[in-house]
Structures are given as structure tokens and as C-alpha cells.
Amino acid sequence: VLFNSLGVLSLTLWGLYVVEGWLRGLFIIPFAALLVRVFVLFHDMGHRSLFSSRRANDTIGTLAGIFLGVAYEGWRSEHNWHHNNQGKLSRRGIDRMNSPMTTDEAEAKPDDAARRVRTISPANIFVLGAISLAVQRKRLQGFFPFRPAFRWPVNDRELIERNVLLTQVGYAVLNVLYVAVYGWATWLLVVLP
After folding, report:
1. To the nearest 10°, the Cα dihedral for 14, 17, 23, 28?
2. CB burial of residue 83 (10 Å; 0-12, 13-18, 19+)
3. HEC per residue, 120-132
4. Cα dihedral sign, 190-181-40-37
5. In terms of pTM, does the model score above 0.90?
6. By mean pLDDT, which of 14-18, 40-44, 70-74, 186-190 is the weakest?
7. Is 175 exposed, middle or buried (0-12, 13-18, 19+ CB in 10 A)?
8. Where are the extended beta strands (E) located within the chain?
9. DSSP secondary-structure letter at 19?
10. Which one of 25, 76, 172, 187 is most buried, by most CB atoms within 10 A?
11. SS (H, E, C) 76-98
12. Please, are residues 34 and 10 in contact by the beta-carbon 8 Å criterion?
């Protein structure tokens, strides 16, 4: 699965290189689809379920994170906390998607309940999730285990801090390479969106 995705990604990047002018804009859809595909694999590596080796999941997950611009260790830590605590009333307020209401609360605050129904929709999750990954999670405090309201211990804090820094440096270098190879116009037209 990973090698098929990398093969198609390589072909897309090569095609982006050999095609010139406005036709490069046609690559936005396959490039975006490949980013989604890499993120799905990144997600599976975060659960350490893509490979049988923990080390392989973490190493390739870190490389995928650099490609995506999302720190693997920070995301993995946050996402696993989310799975382990989703729906626990005592853990509300940390993860916006982990803020359920009881029936009594929903009846007492119908506007809040309606807002939650509107917020937790597939469109919002994908749009807000993309913004969250592309903007908020570029720094350590973008991950909720590193926000002041988080009151539980964070395992491997130093590893996560190093991984966030590595990801940001690697992602910046990758984008400089995109600009050097494809030019500013293609970067703005295909890669940035």
C-alpha cells in the first residue's frame, strides 16, 4: 500500500516537472488526493498498525509527517489520547471533539447542543481538521497535550518537542525544494492549496 502510494506520488511529481505552464494546475487534484492518502497511512502508523514493527511505524510516520507538515509524535500522542478519552465527561474541554453533553445539559442549554450538532459534521471535521493541521499544529502548543488546560502527564515530552522541531525544519526545506524545482507559480497553484 505504501509503495503503491509512493509510486503514484513519484509519477505525479515527475509529471508536474515535465508539464509546463497552466497545465500544471491539473495536478492539484491528484496531488491533493495523494496528500489525503499519505495522511491515512500516517494515521495508521500513528496507531502503529501499518507495519508490524513499532520502529518502522515511527520512522516512516515521522518522514510522512515531514511531507505533510504535521509532527508525527505530537499528532500520535494527541490522537491516541483522543481515542482513549473520547466521550468521558470528566475529560471534557480538552479536545473540542471530546466534549459530549448529557441529555440534561442539552435540554438546559439547547443552543449549545444545536451548536455541537452543527460543529460535528463531516464537512466541518474535514475543513476545520485541515485548518487545524495546516495552521495550529505547526507548533508544540497547537497540540492539546501542551496547552495549559491539559492536566495529565505527557509521555515522551522531549521526543515530541524534538519531533515538532524536526518536522518544521524538514517541511520548510521540502517547500524550498518544491519552489526550486517547480517554481513559485506552481508552488502557489498546486502545492500550497
Report:
1. 60
2. exposed
3. CCHHHHHHHHHHH
4. positive
5. no
6. 186-190
7. middle
8. none
9. -
10. 76
11. HHHHHHHHHHCCCHHHCCCCCCC
12. no
Q: How far is CA 110 from CA 87, 104, 125, 161, in A?
A: 19, 10, 21, 40
Any idea what DSSP says for residue 42? H
Kindly state the cell numbers that stand for 69: 507538515
**Helix, strand counts (H, E) of the chain:** 9, 0
* Contacts for 56 with CB less than 8 Å, ≥ 6 apart: 50
104 touches 114 (CB < 8 A): no
| Cell matching residue 53 | 514493527
How far is the CA of 105 from the CAs of 98, 137, 173, in angstroms?
A: 15, 31, 48
Best CA proximity match to 45, nearest among 64, 21, 61: 61
Q: What is the pLDDT of residues 81-139, one digit of tens each?
A: 888 887 777 777 676 555 678 899 899 999 988 888 887 778 877 788 788 888 888 88
Distant-in-sequence, close-in-space partners of 179: CB < 8 Å, separation ≥ 6: 187
Gap between the Cα atoms of 52 and 57, Å rounded = 8
